[in-house]
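Progress against Task 2.4 (sequence-to-structure conversion) is shown through the following example record, which the project officer requested during the mid-term review.
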Amino acid sequence: MASLQDIRRRIKSVKSIQQITNAMNMVATSRLRKAKEAAVANKPYADKMAQVVSDIAANAGDFTHPLLEARQEGKKLILVMASDKGLAGAYASNAFKEAVAGIEDKSNTEIVAVGRKTDAFFKNRDYEVAKSYIGISERPSYDNAKEIAVDLISRFVSGEVKEISMVYTRFVSAISCVPETVQLLPFGNLAGQGGTHAEYIYEPDAQSVLGYMLPQYLVTTIYAALLQAAASELSSRMNAMSNATDNAQELIAKLDLHYNKVRQAGITREITEIVGGAEALK
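Structure tokens generated for the chain above:
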């Protein structure tokens, strides 16, 4: 049976862990508020960008562009977004499962990793990690999205890869996040995305405007995914740390009860020994 000193040491250790998890919960809650606001504020812009590109494509006629070119030869590339740090529950592992499920040929697939956990996961499993972006998962910026988009466009246009998809975690609510896979390049049927199309006056023409818009559309899509992933990561960490804090409190209560039982048993044993010694002296 554990001694009273061992139990006290265990209670002290659990209380220290509880203080850490509670502090991390508060930090994640504070950051989640900002991340959620950024994701929500960006959504109307991303949706409008998609609608405008669809409207322009519907008026562009027979339009060709390097980012629309379908290829048969080359590798596939997957942009995987996860976290730089752990302690976020199953957030990262769910994104990795989604990514791995879409890989048919490991040797014919490249990974562009967002997050230290993503980089480590795929390198440890002998995937080809073409590039990694570290330190941006919680607080992504538009410049980060632009840098990623420029790199992806370069790889696609050069013929290094034939297809690019993206795996990220869509933020639904503070308690719900869903991993999703989206094809980035080549762009699909852009004209079919918007239903009824608006009419615009183009200068110089619809084809030129669409050619300029497509790279911007890719940047916007990646930036929206980065914001969604950041909110998902922070909500997952908030929930994980909240659960850890509650579990620590339950464990402390059980240890307190066990401590009192052991102490009471010790007192009872001492009383029994005293009474037995007194009886022996009679």
